[in-house]
Amino acid sequence: MEINYFSTRDRSKSLSASRAIVQGLSEDGGLFVPDQFPKLDVSLDKLATMNYREVAYEVMKLFLTDFTEEELKYCIDHAYDSKFDTEEIAPMAQVGDTYYLELFHGKTIAFKDMALSILPYLMTTAAKKNNINEKIVILTATSGDTGKAALAGFADVEGTGIVVFYPKGGVSRVQERQMVTQKGKNVKVVGITGNFDDAQTGVKKIFADKEFEAELLKDGYRFSSANSINIGRLIPQVAYYVFAYSRLVKEGKISAGDPINFTVPTGNFGNILAGFYANKIGIPVNKLICASNENKVLFDFFENGCYDRNREFILTSSPSMDILISSNLERLIYEIAGDDKTCAEMMKLLSENGKYEITPEMKEKCSIFVGGYATEEMVFERIHEVYSDTGYVMDTHTGVASAVYKDYVKETNDKTPTVIVSTASPFKFTRSVMEALEGKKEEADDFELIDRLSSMTGITVPAAVEEIRNAEILHDTVCEKEQMKEEVRKFLAK
Predict the structure, then answer these.
(1) What are the sequence ranges of the domains in the chain?
(2) Does the model's pTM come out above 0.90?
(3) Active site residues
(4) CA atoms 169, 172, 175, 176: torsion sign
């Protein structure tokens, strides 16, 4: 079955998977979605016998149909290799009667590694397939984790350049140091005086600037994206939902065909959308529990059907979720609307008025989702409680999901086996984790706290943290959000 991709805002033109990956964002501002959902063509029992790379191939071959088997396996084998600190790639930890899918064993100790380890290989393979000779310039906005994972993936990759924008003061110290110490001749990191939504909107504006695009094409450059708006980011994420299900079958926790729940800490909606896609291709999912922090725009959406970003932006201890414009929700809106015109109209309302409302029929079509949110106090209490009871330590984003899931069970008494998607190592947000564990504000230096957390838990400090401890700051540019295009121009003029 051949799968092509069209825009959520215009079905009239379709592209191959490789072309959609290179382009990143549709010319009309929409996101690429598959023209149909394929079905897994191996049994759930068979998947249980496979390793991560094999499962990833079975998933990605369904969506990336213009890649040959050889090309796809090359990308997968080079992505999921020794840069992960565990052979299993995405191990599952059982904590009480809940399972934590640990997606932080890659090079930058956050779940973005799962897709951004493979995206450079998919991107360069796709460029060759389409006879694209221009240098591909990756433009990315980050709320903390995508930036470093994209930088690590694309650093010194021939034929590419990458510019990452992040909210200055809106990420953890470890996240910032990971980015500003990044080596590579083709990389640039820029802090902006604004929040993540400002950075993301700025990047989308650059993509939509046709004059700038023509100017750069003339100079031999072509833009693409490493954010989860790129279908080449989203499809690899589907694989770890399938893998998680297969591990529960393998370990005898469930039988093939039994439904499970996933609880996902959610900001930009890409991660949980990958779970929705996994369900579409044949993974039995009962509920996708969408866990928000105090920026609970998604919780309110699932409660009342109104998406409204007109509210106070709150800086929390889970900064990767401090988002009020959840870009990937557009793909779900397209699915539940069933047509591009309705989706385009709603995105226009979001852009002009900051809000839109779905119909009761559309709301019914996304009933697989359940919204929940956790306050800062709930998150800190949950991190402390789980560690005290079990010795398992989690980061703040996973803490949001765990707190939301605890409330969900209390309210529903739903006993369906549940996987909590654990998106980052506790060492990435050590200050907040230590404050949760010790119940007090911490004045010590971040790296002193890292050493204390390691000593307390017996967990070795990850290499990703050790390597930035004394690393040289290589990127110190900060600009206003209105100056983002100019920073890109300066970078490319070097």
Answers:
(1) 92-110+232-461
(2) yes
(3) 112
(4) positive
